[in-house]
Amino acid sequence: MTAPAPLRVTALYHFTRFPDPAALRGPLLGVCTAQRVKGTLLLAREGINGTIAGSAAAIDAVLAHIRTLPGCADLVSKDSHAETPPFLRMKVRLKREIVTMGEPDIDPLAGTGHYVKPADWNALIDRPDTVVIDTRNDYEVRVGTFAGAIDPQTHSFSDFPAWFRAHREELAGKTIAMFCTGGIRCEKSTAFLKAEGIEDVHHLQGGILKYLEEVPPEQSRWHGECFVFDQRVSVGHGLALGTHSLCHACRMPVSAEERASPLYEEGVSCPACHDTRDAAQRAGYAERHRQVQLAEARGAAHVGAQIETAPKR
What residue stretch is flagged as signal peptide (predicted)? Predict the structure, then answer.
């Protein structure tokens, strides 16, 4: 029997101006549903963002529809593959922002930092006068980051403006190189820094995912794996499946070393959350995990197994 073709996993975002994003939601969801595509897409007045998975033909059909939306003809997407479905359902959501920064006056369409191709990134961050900033959240940084990068230790992207303002004097006059998973957070963070008066700002075009796809491991400055917002949890060089899993109690990534800890129990707790959950909570998680395993044994999906995706790229 011929093995089924791997699923195509497509990450995309595009800043444009949608006068009425609510009017776009129904037709977009209809195309995704008809094509049996799963994942999450966000629509806002500032554009579209998300990750979807399905057959190659199905993804092509959805992308063709998206490119008919106002200002989206030049939309660029990034592909990887998965052997098992990384999403269990399809959601098209309306949002205030397609990536939440909480700075309503920041408009990436008015200007962002300089784009740096993955092939040129090493030369930039190797320069002694370059300050490299990881714009992702603290739990993402723990999975992997570029050597020497500053970790702002933010819990959410909306914390980044306050972090910058607290460190403005240290960054003034520096060459700033910023990066994130797929590029969208850097569109806003570099636009924000420019609005705050920092001019020499650069960001990694296509994000970490494009770097891991294109730069050979022997030339890489990347350490660890890259957290992704689906059931793969993390990927490595060549976008190969990583070694992290997800704690279904606290939704944090868990490394192989952490899974060897006595505080780790699959589906119930990990070293990061074990001491913050009481016995009743852990019992509830254990029952949910049991139901998930029963559903898997029947070949059915169980909502308790799903990773809630947040398509920040």
Answer: none
Output DSSP code: residue 243.
Answer: S
Q: How many CA atoms lie within 13 A of 12 on its CB side?
A: 26
> Buried b / exposed e across 227-266, counting CB within 10 Å, b at 16+?
bbbbbbbbbbbebebbebbbbbbbebbbbeebbeeeebbe
How confident is the model at residue 225, as a pLDDT? Answer: 98
- Between CA 181 and CA 228 the distance in angstroms is 8
Query: Does residue 32 carry a catalytic annotation?
Result: no
SS3 115: strand
**DSSP E strand boundaries for the chain:** 7-15, 38-44, 47-54, 77-82, 90-94, 114-116, 130-134, 144-146, 175-179, 201-204, 222-224, 226-227, 234-235, 245-246, 253-254
Helices 21-34 & 56-66 angle (0-180, nearest 10): 160
Chain position carrying tokens 């350490």:
223
Is residue 28's pLDDT more than 90?
yes
Give the per-residue pLDDT at 282: 84
Nearest residue to 296 (alpha-carbon basis) of 259, 267, 275: 267
Task: Give the Cα separation of 42 and 311 in Å (integer).
Answer: 8
Phi, psi of 280 (to 5 degrees): -65, -40
pTM: 0.86
pLDDT in tens, 105-140: 999 999 999 999 999 999 999 999 999 999 999 999
State what percent of residues in the chain have pLDDT above 90. 77
- CA atoms of 306 and 42, how far apart (whole Å): 18
Longest dimension (CA), the chain: 63
Q: Catalytic pick from 72, 180, 186, 270?
A: 180
